[in-house]
Amino acid sequence: MKGPEEEKAKAPLLHSGGNKEMEFLMQLEKAVETHLGSQDFSIPDLCSEMGLSRSQIHRKLKKLTGVSTSAYIRSIRMQKAIELLLDSTLPISEIAFKVGFRDPSYFTRLFTKMYGVPPGEYRKGGGE
């Protein structure tokens, strides 16, 4: 059974609220995407890039999306993995590295947990 964090993390990111909130989410998403392939990119790096403390980012993100910072980063990584799965013939291990995972096995386990099927099956089914 999936916990609320995993369930929300697999949903599309919620871009609701005013312009200021939208701008914050867009900046956050851009910062994560810029460092997507970096396996060492972490929450402190994100905080530094955004010029905000860890608690400020967490509070704001939790309020706007309902997920933690780590779940948010993971969801962006997984969304990009899905794009690569459906739009390329790259091996699963290569996709795992491209979206910032050190261990393709961990990537596969996490993907399967979030989407109910392994990445290879997801690709074969065209994302259905």
Helix-strand layout with pairing:
Layout: H1 4-10, H2 19-34, H3 43-50, H4 54-65, H5 69-87, H6 92-98, H7 104-115, H8 119-124
Descriptive report:
The protein has 128 residues and is mainly α. The protein has one domain (4-122): Homeodomain-like (Arc Repressor Mutant, subunit A, Orthogonal Bundle), CATH 1.10.10. It is 68% helix and 0% strand. The chain contains eight helices and no strands. It has helices at residues 4-10, 19-34, 43-50, 54-65, 69-87, 92-98, 104-115, 119-124.
Structural class: mainly alpha
SSE ordering: HHHHHHHH
* Helicity level: 55-70%
The biggest sheet amounts to: none
Provide the CATH superfamily. Answer: Homeodomain-like
Return the CATH architecture. Answer: Orthogonal Bundle
Radius of gyration computed on alpha carbons: 15 Å
What CATH first level would be assigned? Answer: Mainly Alpha
The number of helical runs is 8
Write a concise synopsis of the structure shown.
This protein has eight helices and no strands.
Which terms would index this structure?
elongated; 128 residues; mainly alpha; Arc Repressor Mutant, subunit A; 8 helices
